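ESCALATION

Customer reports they have been waiting on this structure for their group meeting. Please prioritize. Original submission:
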Amino acid sequence: MIIIGYQGIGKSSVSGVDSGCIDLESSNFWYEGVRTDDWYIYYCNIALDLSKQGFTVFTSSHQCVIDYLVRHNAETNIVCVFPAEHLKSEWIKRLQDRYDNNPSEKNFKALANAKDRFEENIKEIRNSGHFFFTIKDMDYDLMDIVKHLRSL
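Update from on-call: job pushed to the front of the queue and completed.
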């Protein structure tokens, strides 16, 4: 299974050996400040391969990633997980807190993107053609969502 996850849902927090989940971090596809135009092809192919090996793979929700997975997926269940639109201010606060606690470039970019494009991002994900799960309130456990999605 591949879970296309919006920034800040908790992908890294639930990933690990015991969970059977892998957070395939898209920020690793930068080299010396540059990301090639076709980076998402390699990224998505890795995600598809890991999923075929039985892992639940969390990917980023970049539009190019969503589009590629829609076109090239034949046998992997793909689910988009993202917050409901009414959570915008709480979600941005969540990302701000994350950045304040860990001021990495990755966390800065996630925060800036949510501030600038939250509604657009959610609309793009919702219209991607994949099955989706909407987080309706801030009091959730991502691992419970994963277990639910695995059972479908």
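Sent to customer with the following note: The two ends are 11 Å apart (CA to CA).
Escalation resolved.
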